[in-house]
Amino acid sequence: MNIVATTLPDVLVIEPRVFGDDRGFFFESFNQQQFNKGVGRDINFVQDNHSKSARGVLRGLHYQIEQAQGKLVRVVTGRVLDVAVDLRQTSSTFGQWVAVELTAENKRQLWVPAGFAHGFVVLSESAEFLYKTTDYYAPEKERCIAWNDPDLSIDWGIDFPPLLSAKDAAGVAFKDADYYR
Predict the structure, then answer these.
(1) Which residues form the domain of 166?
(2) CA spacing 20 to 30 A to 101: which of 12, 15, 64, 162?
(3) Which member of 118, 131, 136, 180 is catalytic?
(4) In this predicted model, what pLDDT tens digit does every residue of 3-52 receive, in sequence order?
């Protein structure tokens, strides 16, 4: 496994070693020991999630103000642009974001630690998205920041209006969001 730093020091791209030939491929998608060594601390995952979305669906920017979830995300079919926003008020990168393209072909994973908002937009006809979380989903503690907040100015890489859930369409402005201390 190869760990690649992003512009946000705690958000990491994980590139697995893929073994392939004319029959197909094999790779180890997760190894607790190697992952912990790569991120530099012990991480414990408690929940796995799987979603499928059509082209143009944008999910996010989600986070939980309590029971904050670290997420290890990857795409098994299709292509997405995955985004993480630093919501830790004491961080030197507070309010900054990073975007990484995840595809079934590149098999990259993104580590989004607790303290970050997370979202993605589907760039292919559809995409299946898998992620591990470090805490359980708690809907009463979930928050959503508007995907198109002008203070964040995230470049989602799309030239069409995204398809949003009612929850995502009602996301709050970054300046009005609850942050981590």
Answers:
(1) 2-18+28-176
(2) 64
(3) 131
(4) 999 999 899 999 988 788 898 888 788 888 988 898 999 999 999 999 99
Is 23 domain-assigned?
no
SS3 13: strand
pLDDT digits (tens, 9 = 90+) for 69-92: 999 999 999 999 999 999 999 999
The reply to whether the predicted model has a pTM over 0.85 is yes
50 is an active site residue: no
Reduced to 3 states (helix: H, G, I; strand: E, B; else coil), residue 64 is strand
CATH number at residue 14: 2.60.120.10
Known active-site residue 62:
yes
The count of structural domains within the chain is: 1
Tokens 């991480």, residue located = 43
The full 3-state SS of 56-122, as one line of letters, equals: CEEEEEEEECCCCCCEEEEEEECEEEEEEEECECCCCCCCCEEEEEEECCCCCEEEECCCEEEEEEE
Return the pLDDT at 64: 97
From the list 50, 62, 136, 180, the catalytic residue is 62
CB 82 within 8 A of CB 102: yes
Residue 170 three-state SS: coil
